[in-house]
Amino acid sequence: MSPLQRLIISDSRETIAAELNAVFPTIGPLERLKLLVERVPGRTVFTTSLGIEDQMLTHLIFTGGLKIEVKTLDTGRLFPESYTLWRTTEEKYGRRIKALYPKAEALEALVDDQGIDGFYYAPEFRKACCGVRKVEPLGRALDGAAGWVTGLRRDQSANRESMEFVGYDGARDMIKANPLFDWTRDGIRAFTEAEGVPVNPLHQKNFLSIGCAPCTRALQPGEPERAGRWWWEEETMRECGLHIEADGRVVRAKDVAPGHQHGDAAFERLDAGEKIPEGPVA
Ligand code: SF4
């Protein structure tokens, strides 16, 4: 029995994910998306960060008229270029990209606690910021959906090599699909140029993976694609005196970023051993 024939008779989300994973390498990105719409038993959501991979997927979904909800997480800290791209994409395709925002009270508490740029001072603060601005809104973006589409590629970083085209996210009971998993950046760039897909002009300035403005920098020649994100964390530990003792206690550093002040209250809570929940980051 072929993988496609098996797909027709399966029904659990886990089984469907495994069988889609077997079929995906044999078909192209548009067919992958169409098959998801056909086979995922419920709503499918695509979360776009407006990067070049996500713009290609947005193009395929909108021009293909596919029943996939396109959503983005507006952290409030995106580059101006990303907001412009968001608008021009909606104008080009005549479709709305639904935005999810952080909860106002949680954001106010975060900034009150660690300062406006607290993420520079300790990895725990960065994770807390991502938790409020990204992880919690992502949960609402995916709430009730059965399928989740992302623009992840296998060659973006070492830990992504162990991922699959389609997997089953047991924690969320969702089918998670990466339709561009086997595509290269050059291939995606060629597609967007040929099809007139709008892309972020920052890509031309060596910003390959684009997230929040204060947490993204341009790459130097030879650096891996994800090196431009949260680049200070390793260096902060090594060069600025901020480190965590063997017992987990955070030792305070000198100012990490000129002009920024440490969130003392937050540091004191860390000193006292409080754990800040960790969440995934895009
Ligand atoms: Fe906060 Fe930076 Fe994470 Fe954006 S990427 S949510 S600014 S820590």
Could you write a compact summary of the structure shown?
By secondary structure, the chain is of the alpha/beta class. It is built from ten helices and eight strands. The protein has a six-stranded mixed beta sheet.
Features:
10% strand, alpha/beta, globular, binds iron/sulfur cluster, 6-stranded mixed sheet, 282 residues, 40% helix, 8 strands, disordered C terminus, 10 helices, Rossmann fold, single chain, two-stranded antiparallel sheet
What spatial order of strands do you see in the largest sheet? 3-2-1-4-6-5
Number of strands: 8
Name the CATH homologous superfamily: HUPs
Given as residue ranges, the uncertain stretches (5+ residues, pLDDT < 50) are 236-264, 275-282
Give the % helix. 40-55%
The end-to-end distance, rounded to whole angstroms, is: 37 Å
Main beta sheet strand tally, sense and closure: 6 strands, mixed
Domain module tally:
1
The CATH topology: Rossmann fold
As a whole number of angstroms, the C-alpha radius of gyration is: 20 Å
CATH class term:
Alpha Beta
Query: Proportion of β residues?
Result: 5-15%
Helices and strands, in N-to-C order? HHHEHEHEHHEEEHHEEH
**Helix/strand/pairing category:** alpha/beta
How many helices? The count is 10
Q: Round the mean pLDDT to the nearest integer and report it.
A: 83
Question: Overall 3D geometry?
Answer: globular
Bound molecules: iron/sulfur cluster
